[in-house]
Amino acid sequence: MAPSLTLKKEPAPRSAQTGWKHRLPRLQYAYDALEPYIDERTMAVHHGELHASYVAQLNTALAPFADLQSRSALWLLRNLDSLPGAIRGTVRASAGAHVNHSLFWNALSPKGGGLPVGALGEAIARGFGSFEDFRTRFEAVGAALSGAGWLWLVKNRSGLAILTTDAHDYPLADGAFPLLLNDLWDHAYYLKHEKRRADYLKSWWPVVNWPEAARRYQHAVHSPVTTFPRYPWTPQRS
Questions:
Q1: Domain containing residue 222: CATH number
Q2: Residue 98 is part of a domain; what is its CATH number?
Q3: How many structural domains are present in the chain?
Q4: How confident is the model at residue 102 (pLDDT cuts 50, 70, 90)?
Q5: pLDDT tens for residues 149-186?
Q6: Cβ–Cβ < 8 Å for 131, 116
Q7: C-alpha torsion 108→200→142→118, nearest 10
Q8: List of residues 6+ apart from 211 with CB closer than 8 A
Q9: How far is C-alpha 197 from the chain's CA centre?
Q10: Cα separation of 227 and 214, whole Å?
Q11: How far apart are CA 136 and CA 202, in angstroms?
């Protein structure tokens, strides 16, 4: 049966919301809405358990430091060297996971797929030759990454680029601003594809949210490079 788009949005776990600065974002679709491309169980574990655990780790690490609790996750990533050494590693991992996953959920849509159009579609054709060439390159770069990490299409100072980051690192170099990303940790696909990451990458395109990627591209193009990178998703309400 086809997934219903009228299903309620998935709520963030209550324990991840009470009195915390950093919160698990609510999805704009139900856990089963991306079937058959991403299965309901994977979504439930990935968002409701794993992402929630990264948010909890981040809030716990910041709890003794009142002056850091009001900082955004992206600010923390950009200022790691100024953080206390005792929490630097935890913040790098948990804030990175929180930023990346929050971007990732918005990069997916039950109404996704198709081709990028407008300025982003033109930029992809200009930068990679064609959409098919871009898609082939994106899949190949993701499949080639050794170990866990993230796969990105970014806008930087010279144009569009495909890159990967290890673990939960966020692409901070060269004014990179993320347009599209995919999670290459095996928890994103193991229940459905086991170790077959290449199969996951090929099957993922029908849920890509190209309007969101296009919105990010327009935002990047019309903002001064000195402001890169901006807060990468809609700011959370307190």
A1: 3.55.40.20
A2: 1.10.287.990
A3: 2
A4: very high
A5: 999 999 998 899 999 999 999 998 667 899 999 999 99
A6: yes
A7: -40
A8: 109
A9: 17
A10: 19
A11: 9
